[in-house]
Design brief:
This protein has 107 residues and is mainly beta. The protein has one helix at 2-13; strands at 24-30, 38-42, 51-56, 62-65, 80-87, 90-97, 101-106. A 5-stranded antiparallel β-sheet has the order 6-5-4-1-7, with no helix packed on it. It is globular. The N and C termini lie far apart (47 Å). Mean pLDDT is 81; it is low at 1-23.
Length: 107
């Protein structure tokens, strides 16, 4: 009986499963960056922090907001936003200035 249960469990584990939707709110687009320039994603919310990745203004990856842009006591454009950037080679996390991103639907 035990071996039959294992066989059934293994068979069920290879059945296709519906993928979760990746569309909807929560993604960002790059703005205020010249077409021939890049958006620098920083390791920490500081212009002095190391650059994790530089994303071309016409990027082909998915840029997603991963929390609130802070600190809240300063002007919106000066805040740092935690993001993730998913692209062909993987996913990276970091921070960008709010003035360089705007909300958009996820692809």
């Amino acid at each position: 009986m035990k071996s039959k249960t294992i066989v059934i469990a293994l068979a069920l584990s290879v059945l296709p499963v519906a993928a979760h939707a990746t569309t909807g709110p929560g993604c960002l687009r790059i703005v205020n960056v010249a077409a021939n320039d890049v958006l620098n994603v920083r390791a920490e919310p500081s212009a002095k922090s190391r650059i994790v990745i530089s994303i071309p203004a016409n990027n082909y990856g998915v840029l997603a907001l991963k929390g609130e842009c802070t600190p809240k006591n300063i002007a919106w454009g000066q805040r740092w936003c935690p993001i993730s950037y998913s692209y062909e080679d993987g996913t990276l996390r970091g921070y960008v200035k709010a003035r360089f991103v705007r909300d958009q639907e996820c692809p």
